[in-house]
Amino acid sequence: FTEGDNTLYVSSVSLSGPNGDYFYGTIDLENPSAGIVNKYQGGSEITTAIAAKDGELYYYDFDAEAIRKVNLTSGEQEPETLIENLNTVWDLVFDGDMLYMTISENNLIFAARADMSNENPEIELISEGHPSFDAIDIEGNTLYISTFFGGLATIDLSDNSYPLTITDDYFSDDFLVAISIKVADGYVYYT
Known about the structure:
Strand order of the largest sheet: 1-2-3-4
Order of helices and strands: EEEEEEEEEEEEEEEEEE
Number of strands: 18
Strand content: over 45%
Number of helices: 0
Distance between the termini: 12 Å
Radius of gyration: 16 Å
Mean pLDDT: 78
């Protein structure tokens, strides 16, 4: 999930039917009892790699191997492909016009970014490859990345060399995988 303008953007899977029901949608935080609305069928598989900006949902499309965007609230649900030829995108988060992500390449996962204000945004890798990067969030000049098996990595974005710090045992010993992290006021929240 990701939040924006009193709207919660969600990716969801219902296992009813022969192949399940994969969709994206919104929940109006001022009227949450209405449930998930503005559903959009995003392909045969969906991903939790979603981010919202200016009322539009940005998501990774497994089938197209691309980052796409769609406006779920306008009624027009034809997605626009923004960046193509991506192996796997694990997570997305915006900071202004900069879209940060974790992406797979050559059996490793990298932190990367793309300036979405450009007409043809290009991926810029900003970390060395790691075998287990996953969920990301940003606060201030720090990009936080969870790693499988309870680690946390940080990247100082104010330094153009993007120094990477990895703490392999940041979360509790019995914690296996952080599939989602959020950072607020210097605290890292994970599930």
